[in-house]
Every structure is written in structure tokens, then in C-alpha cells.
Amino acid sequence: MQEQTAPESAENAAPSRHRVSALALLSLAIVVYATDQLTKNWVVANLPEGRSVPVLGEFLQWHFVRNPGAAFSMASGATWVFTLLALGVVGAIIWQVRRLGSRTWAIFFALLLGGVLGNLTDRLTRDPGFPVGHVIDFISTPWMFPWPLSPAIYNVADIGIVSAMCLFVLITILGLPIDGSPRAGKEATLEEATTEEVES
């Protein structure tokens, strides 16, 4: 009876792990997306475009700009390309959700999804129009990229995307499986311990 209970509990744990991870992904993605859009709407309604407003001196400023390109206004003439890339990323994340069983991977996908959807919404709905709308950037930290480089101006969606990329590097280094299963070394140790218990 004990030999059958362990596999059954493992089988029941997998769907439960998947549901928790999917719920975490959805909740965090909504928070990132909503925060991004609410702050951008506030910026458009309240800040002067193209002027710096000090918040913490030179450390943090609001500086409202409309970005037609990627991060730091790169490739400003290829807005539609970034729209297509964003749609591809969203599709890839949705496809991977079916394998999701790790909370760490869920946080990575959530930050990435919320950020990508935030900037994609700008490209689809803001001026000059679908699908080449300009992304609203407003967080300025001049110390991050000092002269002669362009100043760092970004938004909440960008913070989500960059945070996701940093987390992805950590996930890769640690070798965490997307389905939440134990890593190879731990899995082998667990199998050896189970075998010893059965034999004893």
C-alpha cells in the first residue's frame, strides 16, 4: 500500500504545483501591467513633455518622453518590428504555461509578461497609432549612464522586463527546471534513498 501511495501523492502534487504557479504568474503579471499603465496615464495627464522634474535631486527625476524605439530609443524607425517581437514573446509565454510548475519560473514569466504587455499596449493604442504607437518613458536616473552616453529614461514595464532577465540568469545558473521537478542531482539522491527504504 505504501509503494502505491507515494507515486499517487507525487501525481497529485504536480497539478497542484502547476495551479499555484499559474496563479502566481497571472497575479504578478496583472500587478506589473496595471502599475505600468496607471503610471503612464498619470504621466501623460500631469507631467510636461521633454522637461526634467526632480524627485530625489540628480538621483531620480521624472522626464516624460515618447519613445518610438526600443530601450534608450534605439532603432526608433522600426517600431512595428518591436510590436511583432512583443506579440511573439507573449505567445511563447502562453505556450510555456502548460509546463509551468516552478514558482521561480512563474515569477520570471510574470515579470516578463507584465512588462511586455505594458509596452505592447502603448504601441497598439497610443499616438501616432496602431501598431506604431510610442512608448511612454518617464523614470530618469542620469547617474546610471553618465555622459557621453544617453541618459537612462524608462518605465515600470522596462523595470519588469530587466528584472525578469536578471532572474532568468539566476535560474539558468541554478539549473531550475520549469516544471518544478527536482534537479538532476537531488532527483538521483531521492531515488537512491527510496530504493534503500524498499530494500530494507
Features:
four-stranded antiparallel β-sheet, 4 strands
Protein described:
By secondary structure, the chain is an alpha+beta fold. The protein has one domain (20-183). Helix content is 60%, strand content 10%. The chain has helices at 2-46, 79-96, 103-125, 156-174, 184-199, and strands at residues 52-56, 60-67, 135-140, 153-154. A hairpin with a 3-residue loop joins β1 and β2. α2 runs antiparallel to α3 (103-125) and α3 packs antiparallel against α4 (156-174). The relative contact order is 0.16.
Category from helices, strands and their pairing: alpha+beta
Shape verdict = globular
Overall number of structural domains? 1
Cα-atom radius of gyration: 22 Å
Oligomer: single chain
**Biggest sheet: strands, sense, closure?**
4 strands, antiparallel
Order of helices and strands: HEEHHEEHH
Uncertain spans, ≥5 residues at pLDDT below 50? 184-195
Note the beta-strand portion. Answer: 5-15%
Tell me the total number of β-strands. Answer: 4
In which range does the helix fraction lie? Answer: 55-70%
Mean pLDDT, all residues: 82
Alpha carbon gap, first and last residue: 16 Å
Task: Count helical runs.
Answer: 5
Question: Order of strands in the sheet with the most strands?
Answer: 1-2-3-4
